[in-house]
């Protein structure tokens, strides 16, 4: 049975004290409202990973990294490696986010290498894919997603790919307040699952959780999560508000 997952991506927000306060606010909300059977992952800036991990371990949720280096180790000033994350007990990492692709020039080759490094060190990849608005308007969105999936994941075996979480994030909906309709989300998630089934088999495709990201919030999460192939969300802005984030966590019917 696929896992229900909600992951919060804080991006480059919060100073240390504000981040610590938010962690404890989330703990308070979880204590009051519970999380049911949902797996909760919070991805703070890397400088807050240790603080966040200490709090998470005691309160039943997990911590993920927003990024790590494409290199295993070496003279790469300022980089953080997958092995470093592993040594800290970090369980998940976001890979291939559109902001990394757009602002930092991450190619499909780099992203594939990061998937491999994450798996090497026992870190669960949260692999992001998604099309820009021009690609959707040109009706190329299915081709774009097919290519992104094949370039990043198709070199893996069945056992390895089963460990990956996929997050579909239409780039035109990230941080814009515009959300893919429930029907659009389901259509793309079903397409992703069909691509995985064609490559790895239906048994594998049915094991992989596919999350929706792109202006998912406390108001629309329940409708989005009600779709057959939407297994949760990768949440941006709404993860910076404890009440909203835990409301989203509890939006499964």
Helix content: 40-55%
**Number of strand segments:** 8
Contiguous runs where pLDDT drops below 50 for at least 5 residues = none
CATH architecture: Alpha-Beta Barrel
Number of helices: 12
Describe this entry's structure for a reader.
This protein is 44% helix and 14% strand. With 253 residues, the protein is an alpha/beta fold. The protein has a single domain, classed as Aldolase class I (TIM Barrel, Alpha-Beta Barrel), CATH 3.20.20.70. It has an eight-stranded parallel β-sheet. β1, α1 (16-33) and β2 (39-43) form a beta-alpha-beta unit.
Overview features:
44% helix; TIM Barrel; alpha/beta
Short description:
This protein is α/β, with parallel strands linked by helices and about 250 residues long.
Layout of SSEs?
Blueprint: E1 5-9, H1 16-33, E2 39-43, H2 49-57, E3 62-65, H3 82-87, E4 92-95, H4 98-104, H5 108-120, E5 124-129, H6 133-137, H7 141-153, H8 158-161, E6 165-168, H9 182-200, H10 202-205, E7 210-212, H11 221-225, E8 232-235, H12 242-249
Parallel strand pairs: 1-2, 1-8, 2-3, 3-4, 4-5, 5-6, 6-7
Helix pairs in contact: 1-2, 1-12, 5-7, 7-9
């Amino acid at each position: 049975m696929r896992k229900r997952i909600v992951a919060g991506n804080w991006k480059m927000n919060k100073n240390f004290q504000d981040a610590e306060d938010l962690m404890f606010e989330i703990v308070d909300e979880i204590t009051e409202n519970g999380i049911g059977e949902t797996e909760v992952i919070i991805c703070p800036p890397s400088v807050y990973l240790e603080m966040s991990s200490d709090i998470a371990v005691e309160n039943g949720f997990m911590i993920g990294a927003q990024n790590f280096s494409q290199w295993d180790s070496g003279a790469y000033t300022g980089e953080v490696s997958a092995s470093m994350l592993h040594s800290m007990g970090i369980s998940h990492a976001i890979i291939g986010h559109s902001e990394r692709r757009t602002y930092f020039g991450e190619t499909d080759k780099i992203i594939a290498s990061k998937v491999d490094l994450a798996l090497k060190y026992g870190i669960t990849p949260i692999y992001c894919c998604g099309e820009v608005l021009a690609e959707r308007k040109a009706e190329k969105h299915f081709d774009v997603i097919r290519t992104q999936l094949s370039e990043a994941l198709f070199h893996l075996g069945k056992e390895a790919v089963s460990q990956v979480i996929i997050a579909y994030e239409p780039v035109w909906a990230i941080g814009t307040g515009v959300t893919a309709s429930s029907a659009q989300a389901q259509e793309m998630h079903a397409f992703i699952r069909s691509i995985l089934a064609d490559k790895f088999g239906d048994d594998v495709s049915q094991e992989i959780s596919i999350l929706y990201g792109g202006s998912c919030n406390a108001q629309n999460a329940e409708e989005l999560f009600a779709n057959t192939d939407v297994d949760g969300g990768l949440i941006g802005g709404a993860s910076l508000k404890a009440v909203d984030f835990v409301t989203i966590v509890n939006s499964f019917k």
